[in-house]
Amino acid sequence: MFDEADAPQPPKVLTTPLEIAANLRLLLESHDPLMITFPERDQRFQSYVVHVDTDTLALDEMIPRDGERFIENGEPFRIEGFHDGVRIAWDCNTEVSISEIDGNRCYRGSLPDEVTYHQRRNAFRAALKLSQLIDVTLDGVRLRGLGALRGKLLDISATGCKLRFEGDIEDRLQLGQVYEKFSAGAPLGMSQVMVELRHLHFEEHINTTFAGVRFHNLTGQLQRKVESFVYQLQREARRFDKDDY
Predict the structure, then answer these.
(1) Is residue 111 classed exposed, middle or buried when 0-12, 13-18 and 19+ CB atoms within 10 A define those classes?
(2) Mean pLDDT of 29-53
(3) Rounded CA gap, 39 and 35, in Å?
């Protein structure tokens, strides 16, 4: 049975400038990393919200910067971020100009007309930087198809984590199923851990499947290891925020 506090909530679509600006300001104040993707392009880019009001939005210089040429070409793009387990995503189909804020390069455009707000769970999640994503492997006797699934760990809480896999793998997984061979590489270092699949979503425009899993019957030692890693990520994020001011 799902815990009520941990059950998935349906996504909301925010449409008023005040509520959109308020939620994007959460990403700004917490310095949550954003993932930027362009249709029909495989590469992903990282950025941050550096300014928001009820009319305009500005994003930090992309990492890597070569994605800037797609903005100069006027190509639309999608932005996705996570704040305390909430997925905040929107599309940019309007003109974006290359500008500066306090001498730092940025991309300035209008506030989006609508933003998807999806509360996935109540447990605090710590996001990993795109340059520091951890390799993960998902396997088990109930995994459909041949071979283990290999992907990346995007964020983690004391009770579970979010994973990213290339391509559409929805037919290989089943919601509610427990898979007994989940492993995560350094610096987390987990192996042969049981996880329960709680969420599954395929994003066709970036050919990527996102999965949310809950740790199942963790030993006390592993639980403390996970909690220590989450705390370390939180501490690094706070220190990064202080360095910006």
Answers:
(1) middle
(2) 88
(3) 13
